[in-house]
């Protein structure tokens, strides 16, 4: 069985950036992004760095078509102050939250074939696709998806990614891993807001709706190596 294994990883180095800075823009979901390749929200390529995507999951999955630059390291995470401090604090106080508590992230290539995925990371129920886990050799479009834990991508062969243990970073090693994405399936109907912090994604500022004045928390530091291990079982 093929899988992607992590070695020593430094806790995320977090910084806050203003969207007014050069090469620091964000994308806010204006209408519901689809959960298939044909209905994914398209973010035009450009010379600026896209550092975050924000939206709402309402019992479904959201897919974004993004542009990655060849040779540039990609990463994505929903870990930020709101998710690692705000949600636990609300739970402790018994207060409701409008944030999605347990999302998962997936990256697919231009044809919809799975690259890697994660559910829980760094001791939290928030996912991370770490820096070093994938760097495209050539520039092009990819599909980034987010869904609630338990609502999983599938192809004509079955589930594209394994689901357990939830802390692993998986390659497309499920029964349907060799075929392109068809959609998502599962019983989770969770609703909530999310923000995905990104590195290695390029976009055009003019096509970014409703930019936020603060981009939030970015994961920019990873210590050690993230190795791709492929074994067959």
Tell me what the structure shows.
- The chain is mostly beta strands and 233 residues long.
- It has a single domain, classed as Jelly Rolls, CATH 2.60.120.
- It is built from 1 helix and 19 strands.
- It has one helix at residues 81-93, and strands at 2-6, 14-15, 25-28, 41-42, 48-58, 61-68, 75-77, 103-108, 114-118, 128-129, 140-148, 151-155, 158-159, 169-170, 183-186, 191-199, 201-203, 218-219, 226-230.
- The strands form 4 sheets. Strands 3, 4, 5, 6, 7, 8, 9, 10, 11, 14, 16 and 17 form a 12-stranded mixed beta sheet that branches. Strands 13-12-15 form a 3-stranded antiparallel beta sheet, with no helix packed on it. It has a two-stranded antiparallel sheet with strand order 1-19.
- Strand 12 (151-155) and strand 13 form a beta hairpin.
- The chain is globular.
- The termini are close together.
Concise structural overview:
The chain has 233 residues and is mainly β.
How are the SSEs placed, and which strands pair?
Blueprint: E1 2-6, E2 14-15, E3 25-28, E4 41-42, E5 48-58, E6 61-68, E7 75-77, H1 81-93, E8 103-108, E9 114-118, E10 128-129, E11 140-148, E12 151-155, E13 158-159, E14 169-170, E15 183-186, E16 191-199, E17 201-203, E18 218-219, E19 226-230
Parallel strand pairs: 3-5, 4-6
Antiparallel strand pairs: 1-19, 2-18, 5-16, 5-17, 6-11, 6-17, 7-10, 7-16, 8-9, 8-11, 9-14, 12-13, 12-15
Pfam families: PEP-CTERM (PF07589)
Protein name: PEP-CTERM sorting domain-containing protein
Keywords: Signal
